[in-house]
Design a protein that fits this description.
With about 250 residues, the protein is mostly helical. Helix content is about 70%, strand content about 0%. It is globular, with a radius of gyration of 19 Å.
């Protein structure tokens, strides 16, 4: 099985770049006319495309750490190619997270890589496999934040990248929660007792969706989640005002 970067990943990356170009052109259009459809389209394409790219990098993080830990099967399954089609189910891995982000503004964790836990003898290594995915989101968010802070760029592009950076931070905060089915629980799971792990296995299929329903349907829960995300985003140097404008453009239909 090849480990070359998948053309599907490169295509998604190209969509993100195209969105960035439109955001730059939209900035000029905004300055001339006071409004810009190009800016809105650019932000939507860059953020959704960038989110899809980060979904691939998140799952690649899991797979790469698992491979180094002893699970060589991830190479044969194509997990190291960044091919989004390889990450369990395209609908759950790609389509649903993008729709949830566009409709509700929530960065729902996407697909999953199937790891042979028995091939990784160390509990600490298995824990690190789970942490690698959210860590990828945190690193991406920090890199984007740094780029906006130090690289001169049109305000439209800065707005889109700030929005995408905040989404990465929110994804980290959400996915690191110790809820069965999320990576935060996977970090703890190797150290838990057998009865606790058995119970977790029973609730794992639906626990993340219960959490999603709380985030979307209960204003207090949603507000607390975004407050924590904003605090972490600010701690890494993010511009919350630019990110808020980007979110409003992303959710243009509201």
């Amino acid at each position: 099985m090849s480990t070359r970067v998948s053309p599907w990943f490169l295509a998604i990356l190209a969509v993100s770049v195209a969105g960035g170009v439109l955001a730059v052109l939209g900035t000029a259009q905004l300055a001339e006319s006071g409004s810009s459809v190009l800016l809105t389209v650019g932000v939507v394409l860059l953020v959704l495309g960038g989110w899809a790219v980060s979904l691939c990098l998140h799952e690649f993080g899991h797979a790469a750490v698992a491979y180094r830990g002893g699970d060589l099967s991830v190479r044969d399954k194509g997990y190291l190619t960044l091919d989004i089609r390889r990450y369990t189910d395209v609908g759950m891995s790609f389509v649903l997270p993008v729709i949830i982000l566009l409709v509700g503004g929530i960065p729902l964790p996407g697909g999953a890589v199937w790891i042979q836990q028995g091939a990784i003898p160390s509990r600490s290594a298995r824990s690190l496999v789970s942490f690698a995915g959210p860590a990828a989101n945190l690193v991406i968010g920090a890199i984007l934040t740094l780029a906006v802070a130090v690289v001169p760029m049109p305000v439209g592009l800065a707005t889109a990248l700030s929005c995408l950076a905040l989404i990465q931070i929110l994804a980290f905060v959400l996915n690191i929660l110790p809820v069965p089915g999320l990576d935060g629980f996977g970090v703890l799971e190797p150290y838990l007792s057998t009865p606790v792990r058995r119970f977790a296995a029973q609730v794992r299929p639906f626990a993340p969706f219960v959490l999603l329903a709380l985030l979307i349907g209960v204003p207090g829960v949603s507000a607390a989640f975004f407050d924590i995300g904003d605090a972490v985003f600010g701690a890494v140097g993010g511009d919350t005002e630019l990110a808020a404008i980007g979110y409003s453009l992303l959710l243009f239909w509201r």
